[in-house]
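Box 3.1 A note on notation
Throughout this textbook, protein chains are presented in two layers. The first layer is the amino acid sequence; the second is a token string describing backbone geometry. Keep the layers aligned when reading.
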Amino acid sequence: MDMENNNWRDLAPLHSGLTNVRSVLVQCDTAFQLSKQLKIILVENNLNYIESGISKHHLRFSLIGVGYYSEFLNTLSNSVSQGLAGSESCDVSLPNDNYPYWLAHMGEGHSASFTMPQNCDTKGMILCVVYLSNPGIDATECLTSVLIVNYTKCTFQIHKRDTVFSFNEEDWHGIISNLGSRDKVEIFVTFGHKLVVKNTVVYLICGESNDMEMEPAKG
């Protein structure tokens, strides 16, 4: 899509109106143009995040997987649950790197930034979102899209809600084909209903075994 004469306000109805479109990949000409488009998207999504002062009892989490991840989902889910249960404050303990199985990249709020690893056959990823639990609000129901920004290539790729809940092998190939070694990347998970997010963590899957031990990290 030519972003010189179009902006996100033109892209949004296109993306939501075509039911068979699973994702949209936009190539910007410059870093400034990319920054401008991201600002429009993020302002329109009205993202909120927790800074401090929330008890562990008010926090929940949601996991989103794409590509090869199924062998690790239960292990991560159990570890995150234990981390939330073991936290005495809003500073929760979340699983850290578990080389050679995965690399963890932790962020505050709705996004996590990282550099794509070298010499690593990345087979999939799991997104972990820790959010404020309010009555009647569930992350899976509020999720609107996953936005993958490649600052090195000046691109952003938007996956709408329906695609996120049915990520397939083709979706993963479309994601990883645009992420090269040492590329600077940021992944945003956007929600409606003013869902308040504490942390977003990206786990890049590199291994194939569920026989593993993990050490939690402060997130």
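The two ends are 37 Å apart (CA to CA). Residues 214-219 have pLDDT under 50 and may be disordered.
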